[in-house]
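pipeline/complex-builder :: batch 7 item 3
reading input block
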Amino acid sequence: MVESAAFPSPGPRSGTARVAGSVKATSTPGAVVVTGICGRLGKQLARVLHRERRVVGVDRRPFPDKPKDIDHAQVDIRRTKLKDVFRTGDVAAVVHLGVMHDPRASASEHHSWNVAGFGKLLEYVAQFQVPKLVVLSSANVYGPQPQNPQFLTEESPLLGGQNFSDIRDLVEVDMLAQSFFWKLPETETVILRPVHILGTVHNAPSNFLRRNPVLTVMGFDPMTQVIHEADVVAAIELALSPGIRGIFNLAGSEPVPLSCLIKILGRQKLSVPYSVAKVALSRLWSLRLTTFPAPELDHIRYVCMVDDRRARQVLGFAPSKSLDETALAVDEGRW
Amino acid sequence: MCGSVTLPSSVAHGAKRSDALARIGLNGRSGPGLLRRLLGAVDDTVDDALERLLGERFDDRLARVPLTLGTSGVDPFGLDPQWAKYALVTIAMLHRKYFRADVFGIENVPRGRVLLVANHAGQIPIDGLLIGAAMFMDAEPPRIIRAMVEKWAVGLPFVSLAFTRVGQVVGVPENAKRLLSQGEALLVFPEGARGIAKTYNRRYKLAEFGLGFMRMAIETNTPIVPIAIVGAEEQYISVANIESLARILRMPAFPIVPQLLVPGGQFPLPTKYRMWFGEPMRFGGDPDDDDAVMDEKVWLVRQTIQSMLNRGLKERKHVFW
């Protein structure tokens, strides 16, 4: 579906919808469409962005406590209604945060949301010639593997789905966004691949560290990188600046052993041999007693760390939060 | 910073012993007083033993090692010097007491990045350990060397963890390049499994060398220090290597070592080790040249090590002393 819209014929509509190039974007910035705005990260991004730019949120969930100047379109990104968002406003940028990673959701729902939904979004970005597209992917697309180099560069193969099929569509989203580089070179596409995001967000790594005791695999203590949610928001802001395009790994403060994070949080460790943990988790999983899928144990066995030199040099990104702040952020805002 | 192991970089090397123990998982703080005292005593013993073997305090020596440690006291590749201390006390014993290694020409190792290329033998990589010991105990300034670990070892619990904490990394070219660009000393055995699994009748005849290390050296403009080790071949006498069985068990080799059946023969024989460090060799050219071109350069290194070995064998009076 993306193919059909990749090269739209320049018609009168694209003339009106078009929001100038990068130069104009700085002087009179158009709207930033943020998908998945009702997630915790989305809300934080919205709060930062709306002070300077017009923000249009897209999410099928309601956004009860939204700032007044944010428009919220409560639509499913797979619906054609999404097109109205692009049709009405001069969209200067699209930030795609609305990636679903809920291992409990059915595979078809997952796939249609992540891949078909994102395909729709790309179609409109192409049709309305939006000059900027920022996609929040993840360093997990590289996948934790025993043979991983200590620091993966942006050119490393995306093997995340090799042992864990549920993340295949996340890899596919990343690939779709990559194909956009050449399909629509006029749009500045940015793919951000942050390491484990910690904070008030309800993602797998934060939830994992919120437990007490924290599960570890006996005899393994991989080096880990974590990034504070506020630093991810800052990176997205940087990615929105004109002229930036490409793929960027985002790493937070220095890499540390997993046990060090657990120690900072003052949690107990529960070390379980891999084979036991695997069997126990798959049983608990089938009984719906855990949200930790057994294949994700690889994340606490092997390294999946990234080389963030490009983000530091090209994007000008530098994490502002220290390791302690980042780790302790998972306990903030809990009730 | 990592809980109790708060290590400002200026005093990182003078970490307290209780921290060191906490780091390797023996957390005595929460245990009863007796346990804490016991662990303290163990640690004192380790410190004393190391001081005797090194001729100075471990922390004083460690302070001279060029390292890039983070605030948590661990380097980006997972090396933790306080872990390395416990590994070192064993290795130092092997080096000084068990194998009574003689080290020649270690002053040839230049500062900064360097590839240490050695012959490989003896069924288990004790030669690697002893080169590590020599570089920490006998070289000035002392160095903690890095070696590349086979990928299959990374999947083994405890083994992979211990390897990582003492500074060993997964054997992929990206890691090697990064370490060399950090100015580290990297140990390479270009013979690989072919070398270590040699049977006794082929002792001290170098197996075929891989070419990867030469491409790496040229690409990163790194000097190569050839090392010849005499004494490793006799520690375990292998009469055969059953390759088909090794393939089935997915092991690099399956040697037949009769001494393992004798009580006490599980330990390596206490041969005397002798290590010669050669003059650094530098190579230029295109790292992506044909294998034939690389072969010639690798042949030079191989020949240097072989002639060092031959000379060493001629000088040697006895295998055990």
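note: Chain A touches chain B at residues 146-151, 153, 217-223, 254-257, 260, 263-264, 266, 273-274, 302, 323-324 (CB under 8 Å).
queue -> next item
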